[in-house]
Each structure stands twice: as C-alpha cells, then as structure tokens.
From TrEMBL:
A GO biological-process term: protein N-linked glycosylation
Catalytic activity: a di-trans,poly-cis-dolichyl phosphate + UDP-alpha-D-glucose = a di-trans,poly-cis-dolichyl beta-D-glucosyl phosphate + UDP
Single GO MF annotation: dolichyl-phosphate beta-glucosyltransferase activity
Chief location bin: endoplasmic reticulum
Organism lineage: Bacteria, Candidatus Gottesmaniibacteriota
Residue stretches making up the Glycosyltransferase 2-like domain: 9-172
Keywords: Endoplasmic reticulum, Glycosyltransferase, Membrane, Signal-anchor, Transferase, Transmembrane, Transmembrane helix
Cited InterPro entries: DPG_synthase (IPR035518), Glyco_trans_2-like (IPR001173), Nucleotide-diphossugar_trans (IPR029044)
Source organism of the structure: Candidatus Gottesmanbacteria bacterium GW2011_GWA2_42_18
Endoplasmic reticulum found in the keyword field: yes
Pathway the protein acts in: Protein modification; protein glycosylation
Protein name: dolichyl-phosphate beta-glucosyltransferase
Length: 252
C-alpha cells in the first residue's frame, strides 16, 4: 500500500512489554482494525527490549500483514515514537501505549475533530485518573502547576498516551524536537514526561490547531515511581524547553 491508500497509522512503542503482549493488548488492536472499513497499518517500535517482547512482536507481525515490526536500540519512549512516526504512511497518525490504558476504540472520539480542521488531537483523562495511586495523582497536579508556570501551555492533560496528528503536522513536528530527539540516550524504563510537553509546546508555537478530547482511561502500573528523581527530571526538561524557546531553536 502507498501513502494515498492508508487511512491510519498507529505507532506503538514497546520496551519490555512481554506481560501486556501476552495478555492480548495487541490482539485487541488487531481485532478492532479488522472491523473497520479503512486500510490501516500498525508500526510497533521495539525500543531495545531485553525480555521476550522481541520474539512475541515478530510472531504477531508475521500473523498480521498490516503490522510492521521496527527494532531499534534503546533510547526511550520519545525516540521510539519518533522513529515510528517517521516511518508512517497513513493520512492520520496515532501514537498509543501498548498497555492500551486508553482502549483503541477511543479513536472514534477523535476522528470528528479532524473534520473540524484540527491537526493535533489529544486524548484527555480530564484530570480524572481513576485507579491511580494518590501519589501519582499528587504528582500529576504538581506537574500541571509547573507546566503552566514555566511554559504557559493551556492544555489540561498533556500526558495521556493517546495522541493523533494529520500526516503533515506529524512530519513537521517530530523532526523538530530538540530535547527529545533521536540522539537522546536512555537506560532502563523512562517516563520522559517532557516529551509530550515539548511536542505540544512546539505544535502550539507553530500554530497547529489542537483539540483536547476526553477519553476512557484505565490505570496501568508499568514501573516504580521515584517521586524526587522523576520530579527533578521533569523540571529539568521543562526548563530545557523554555531555554530552547528563548534561544529561538523552535523558530525554524
């Protein structure tokens, strides 16, 4: 299929997701797409997994002719998503977490906004994180305060891992990321909260129309939280974005 033939590309990053793969998360995506009338592709980006994810993903890709397996060295979620987006051929591009905390059928809530002229459409938990531990909820509120204080980004939920773009918007934005580009290194599982922020900050700065749409969301725990370390890393990322903006690095 060519670019003109594919309606939707779904990019799914994977780092040591053996458990969720075995639980059938990707089968849910495949089943959903089989019920749709439009042609779609799924690009699964293996971000250097060191469990059995790679073998499982290769098997699933072999069984589904619209699934594409992309292997890369470990650099973190941001680089994995970017690598997948740059390979995408769809008219619209969605990136979604493999655990399907936001079920794939929530796409149906996003599509109408493309018809209204929006170019970036993001799922929003609408500040409700049902099932999430109190610590996570408190960190989310603190992050929101810092984000608005430093960057004045008027978006309620920047971190939901369910974001869709027109092809033109995606191919304009992702190559221009500075803090979270394909050169960044990572070790172990990373949160990279600043990735979504930089992406949306750049989209707003470049004048893309952004819609924030409430979606269904279920809490999934995938890593241990270190409140101090994670908060400091997030603050550092916000300051890097602010500095890059002040230096005109996003103006090109």
């Amino acid at each position: 299929m060519t670019v003109d033939d594919i309606f939707l590309t779904i990019v799914i990053p994977c780092y040591n997701e053996e458990r969720n793969i075995r639980l059938g998360a990707l089968e849910n995506v495949s089943s959903y797409l089989r019920r749709q009338k439009y042609p779609a592709e799924v690009i699964i980006v293996d971000d250097g997994s060191n469990d059995d994810s790679s073998a499982l993903l290769k098997k699933i890709s072999a069984e589904n002719n619209n699934f594409i397996y992309l292997k890369k060295r470990h650099q973190g979620k941001a680089a994995a998503v970017t690598a997948g987006v740059l390979k995408a051929r769809g008219r619209y591009i969605l990136f979604s977490d493999l655990d399907q905390a936001t079920p794939i059928n929530q796409l149906e809530k996003l599509y109408p906004y493309f018809d209204k002229g929006y170019e970036v459409i993001i799922g929003s938990r609408n500040n409700e994180r049902k099932g999430a531990p109190i610590l996570r909820q408190a960190m989310a509120k603190g992050f929101m305060f810092l984000r608005n204080l430093i960057l004045n980004l008027d978006i309620r939920d920047t971190q939901c891992g369910f974001k869709a773009f027109t092809r033109a918007a995606a191919l304009d934005l992702f190559p221009k990321l500075k803090v979270f580009d394909l050169r960044r290194k990572a070790s172990g599982s990373t949160v990279t909260a600043g990735f979504d922020i930089e992406l949306l900050y750049l989209a707003k700065k470049k004048g893309f129309r952004i819609a924030e749409v409430p979606v269904e969301w279920h809490y999934q725990e995938t890593r241990n939280v270190n409140p101090l370390k994670d908060s400091l890393e997030t603050l550092a990322d916000l300051l890097r974005i602010k500095l890059n903006s002040a230096l005109g690095k996003y103006d090109a």
